[in-house]
Amino acid sequence: DLDAAKQQLEEFIPHVRNISDNSVRKMAGRDLARFKEFKKQGIAVKFGRFSKKENEQIRKNVEDFLSATGIDSAEKLLFTYRYPEDKGTIHRLKAKHLFCEKLSEGIPRPWRLIYYRARKMFDPNNYKGRYTDEEKEKLKKYHALHGNDWKKISEMMSRSNLSVAMKYSEIKSAVNYGPWSKEETRKLMNAVEEVIRKRLGTEEEDSHSLSEKSSEDLLVDREKLSEKLPWTEIEAKVGTRYWRQCKQKWNTVLINRLTKGQQLFRGTKGLQTKINLIKRLYEMDVEDPNDLNWEEFNNIIGDVPKAYVQGKLYKLKVSVPFWQKKTFS
DNA sequence: CGAACATCCCTGGAGTGAAG
DNA sequence: CTTCACTCCAGGGATGTTCG
């Protein structure tokens, strides 16, 4: 019946064949019935970032559950282990009032993702802004003491465990900051070329020495230049920078190459570009910024990387007064 | 004021372990 | 074995800051 489950799920989760048997079993038990119910109502299973509407729905579901059970805070509900004295009671209430079902009500996504999202939203240790230098030192010290026990460290730092784990991976080894040297940039470009070659399965690396690699014998689709690159591998090859720095630098290199001399965002041409962006946005008629389909912005500015369009659109967005208080539509 | 750089948050995949 | 609760990782995207 694992195969039967896969077959039924495939309709809702097209990539289900790539998911491990364990996860499929879980989804079959927990989500299949929900997905079918949504389908009856003509609602498709959703992926990608949660929209404002969905976040509101989660808030409502949590509030409803709290008032139904009398549990007095979302933190107690979602981080039960922080309240050892109430643990037994809360677990019983969760089971009795069908926590899983209620939490995911009205949201056409796999249960696990809704649960995970809710925990982030209601974790008082989350969304705490930038780390101070003292915090970074503390984090290093705690990691030296407790290793990868992120749960423990997160309690000690009053930051979410995801946040501390991520921050640590960023600061664990000393990296350079500030402008990239010519040498670093060259290393980065070599690294990217290497991984793309490897991916394409070209055996040329054996026959060509590094120095005689020329760019004209490698033609790849534009998307392959910036998407799904193995950044941790590239980080290792560059050696002096963190992978996110590498990703960003690569994007600026790519943008400069692809827009060379076009002055896309200056002068009257710049104004026209902005107008085009706004027009396209208007035509797309999306309710939520998280529902934007970046592919549809292709060729609005010119033949530029996705990251360029994303950056420009962001700048436009924040140039609207009080943009944070306004709805997208 | 835009480009470059820094650093935050999010997604979706996989995995674990306890309890029944 | 199933269900519930929790965790980690790799990569993508958003937002803040600095500088020429």
Q: Concise description?
A:
With 329 residues, the chain is an all-alpha fold. The chain has 17 helices and no strands. It comes from Ceyx cyanopectus (Indigo-banded kingfisher).
Sum up the structure in keywords:
globular; single chain; 57% helix; mainly alpha; Arc Repressor Mutant, subunit A; 329 residues; 17 helices
What features would you describe in this structure?
InterPro entries: Homeodomain-like_sf (IPR009057), Myb_dom (IPR017930), SANT/Myb (IPR001005), TTF1-like (IPR053078). Residues 123-171, 172-254 form the Myb-like domain. One of its GO terms (cellular component) is nucleolus. By secondary structure, the protein is mainly alpha-helical. It has helices spanning 2-10, 21-30, 32-40, 52-69, 74-78, 87-96, 99-103, 111-122, 133-146, 150-157, 161-171, 182-200, 204-207, 231-238, 243-258, 267-284, 306-318. Helix 1 crosses helix 2 and helix 9 runs antiparallel to helix 10 (150-157). It binds a DNA duplex (20 and 20 nucleotides) through helix 2, helix 6, helix 8, helix 11 and helix 15.
